[in-house]
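Service request form, structural biology core

Requester: graduate student, group of Dr. S.
Request type: structure prediction, single chain
Budget code: on file
Notes: please return the result as structure tokens.

Sequence provided:
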Amino acid sequence: MPHSTDKAQTVTGFADQTPREAIPRAPMRRRPVHTYSIVARDPVTGQMGVAVQSHWYSVGSIVSWAEAGIGAVATQSFVDPSYGALGLDLMRGGKSAPDALKALLAVDPQPAVRQVAMVDAQGCVGAHTGEHCVAAAGDHIGAQYSTQANMMLKSTVWDAMGSAYESATGDLADRLLSALEAAEEEGGDIRGRQSAAIVVVSGVNTGRPWTDRIVDLRVEDHADPVGEIKRLVKLKRAYDRMNRGDELLASHDVEAALREYAAAGQAFPDNMEMVFWHAVTLVKVERIEESIPLFSRVFAHDMDWAEMLRRLPKAGLFANQEGLVDRIIFQARGA
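Core staff response, request fulfilled:
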């Protein structure tokens, strides 16, 4: 059953017997990273992820950790980043998330100031909120996820995050973002907001981290970090569609490729990069007239794109037969 606590949770399993001095620890931070976060595993896709927001610069560089096929970790409050690296190491070695967390707490000289949550590739969850975390602080464990927060305006934040995550639709990234938005609506950090991050990894480790890391975005310093991270996720999806279009074009599925380019451009109509390459693709498949309105939009924004177009034939992207590029530029500027 989902549950909440304002103090350290008992985590089942056995403690790792590694001597305390053998495990490297980060220097004690003098100020806590007042933070709310969620770690979760999607039971359908197996994807795992972390989303976090804090009134602290570059929170994603220390709080959020994830590895495909292994697990995800959020380490916060008086942050010890080694919980992220060592937690993943222990889960990679076969420990469940609760057992990995218990092992690390057992050798931590200051567990009372830590707030940590972990989820493993089987969906097991461990969470700990130390008794000396700054109030309001607590966590909420649900089915294959945990929400946690410290230094919040209200003690209802972590439960609100859990409810939002459970009721949200969409993929894992969408649901993680819903949890962050719920925290903001509940009052969020008592001192405000500054940075946010989201990372989502595949449920299966292919040995190619560049493909296993599905989402990896950070907002280091922003007046509305949750809103900005949400915008960046939408932008990433548009670029993913551009990349998918490239793959389809390489496999000679021209119509499907053009649909992907068009969809990306519709999502971000002011993004001239997407419009430009959509137009270039139309030239490559000899649909010149269809490319003219797109080039016209791009050139109206910045004529440097025309110079960019002139450079593409030399790179082998299309043949500049009979002054094709000059004709396109002339027609597009007059359109």
